[in-house]
Structures are given as C-alpha cells and as structure tokens.
Amino acid sequence: MSLIEVRDLSVRYGGNTVLSHVDMSIDRGEIVTIVGPNGSGKSTLLRALIGAVPIAAGRLTRASGLSIGYVPQKLAIDPTLPMTVARFMSLPRRQAPADVEAALEQAGVPDLSNRQMTNLSGGQFQRVMLARALLSSPDLLLLDEATQGLDQPGSAAFYRQIEEVRARLGCAVLMVSHELHVVMSASDRVICLNGHVCCQGTPEIVASAPEYRALFGSGTQGALALYRHDHNHSHDDGCAHDHGHPQGTESGVVPLHQATRGKVH
C-alpha cells in the first residue's frame, strides 16, 4: 500500500478551484518532485496532504500510523525574540536533548543547539527546519520550496542532505521546487502540476529531452518549459492533457495514467 494516495482530489478557496481531479500516490522510500508555475497549487497540495486545508472533493488515504514531517515554504521569527535552536526544536512540545541532538546531526548541523535562531545563515536555518521535521522519525517528509533564498551551492548541499536522510530513514520525500537543475539527480519521479496533474516522468528521461537542454542553455526560467507535452491539444492554463498517446513520446515524458509509479533503479 502507498504511504499516501489521492484520487480525484479538488480544493477550492471561496469560489476559486485551486486544484481539480488530482490523482497521485507516494510510495515508501521514493523521492518525488512537484513542479509547476506560480499559482499552480503546489503548496496547496502539500497542505491538503497534511490536513491544513480541507478538500472539496475526492479521496485522500493515508497509511495507518503514517508519520509526516513538514518543512514549510517560509517561517518568520521575530528578530527581537531571543530563542536558541534547542528551544525552537522543543516547540510546541518539549523534546529530549538527546533527540534534538540526533535530529540536528541527521540534518547535518550537529553543533547548533546553543546558537540563536536569528544568528543562523539561510542554509543553517533550513537545516534546523529540516531537523525539526525529523524529530518525529517521519515515514513521509514534505518540503515546500525548502531551498528558497539559498544560492545554488547551498541548494545542492541541502538536497544531498535530503538524499542522505532518505537513505538513513527509508522515508519517502515529496518536495516542491523550481530548481530542476539541482533536484534532477535527487528525484525518482517528477510531477507537473498546474491546477491538475498534467504529466509526469522519470527525471532521467526529462533531463535527456532537447527542451530541457535548450532551457538551461538559454537561461530560460520556468519548470514547465522542461516538459514537452506531446499531446493533441493545449489549454489556456499552459499545460497539455493526455488523450491516449502511447508511452514513450519523443520527449519521454509520460502521461500520468501510463507513468511508472515505482522507484527508478
């Protein structure tokens, strides 16, 4: 059984439909990256998975006893508030010092317990956020733009840490990112979202597509440009939809219902 599975999921804010008819699942041990333009519902999907926003329709199934660790896109801390890393790690529930130290070590920052949160670099702050998410020994780790604001070497180092965490804990990782040039090597699957699931494929296949090489050669921005939606019509939302094209199109990006869901070996 998958750790988490959604079928025909929709989310609405007021009268606006943010997500519609989303089907996806996450299996133990795999790393999945969600890409899409701003406003495509990526953060909303993650928040729906943890129950932070209600679903309007569809079904969301979690494995029994599933433990989820969540690293949000942003967290503002009052710069005038004195708070050590150890204290932050014990909010809202007090944690044993040994557990705090172990989580910080897993996140790659073993010597920060007594540092003030406001004195951390951007990379250190994100590692502490990761450590806090690891305190529950999660089966599923959710990362929402966790490297936002970091430079490229910092992002690469963070994602290498995620790979180490996955290897050590055996947890699944679902992350939102625009940095496909960094996360390609760390992902087993890539899901393209634009209010609905447009398509998905293995990163190796996507990385070999001419469109991907052309994108980074020209400096063009936007994760959707990595994909050649080789379907028979397009929509105003910027994504194409599958209508029965065979697996193994020119780009190698596979329509959702034909995609291999297991890990890439």
Walk me through this protein's architecture:
- By secondary structure, the protein is an alpha/beta fold.
- It has 2 domains: 183 residues, P-loop containing nucleotide triphosphate hydrolases (Rossmann fold, 3-Layer(aba) Sandwich); 64 residues, no CATH class.
- Helix content is 27%, strand content 21%.
- The chain contains 8 helices and 9 strands.
- It has a 6-stranded mixed β-sheet with strand order 5-6-7-3-8-9, with helices on both faces. Strands 2-1-4 form a 3-stranded antiparallel β-sheet, with helices on one face.
- A hairpin with a 2-residue loop joins strand 1 and strand 2.
- The two termini are 20 Å apart.
- The C terminus is likely disordered.
Percentage beta strand: 15-25%
Return the CATH topology of the largest domain. Answer: Rossmann fold
**CATH superfamily (homologous) name of the largest domain:** P-loop containing nucleotide triphosphate hydrolases
Helical residues, percent? 25-40%
Number of helices: 8
Named CATH architecture of the largest domain: 3-Layer(aba) Sandwich
Specify the biggest β-sheet. Answer: 6 strands, mixed
Please identify the oligomeric state.
single chain
Could you state the order of secondary-structure elements as H and E?
A: EEEHEEHHHEHEHEEHH
Q: What radius of gyration results from the CA coordinates? A: 19 Å
Which CATH class of the largest domain? Alpha Beta
The separation of the N and C termini measures: 20 Å
> Care to count the β-strands?
9
Unreliable parts: 211-265
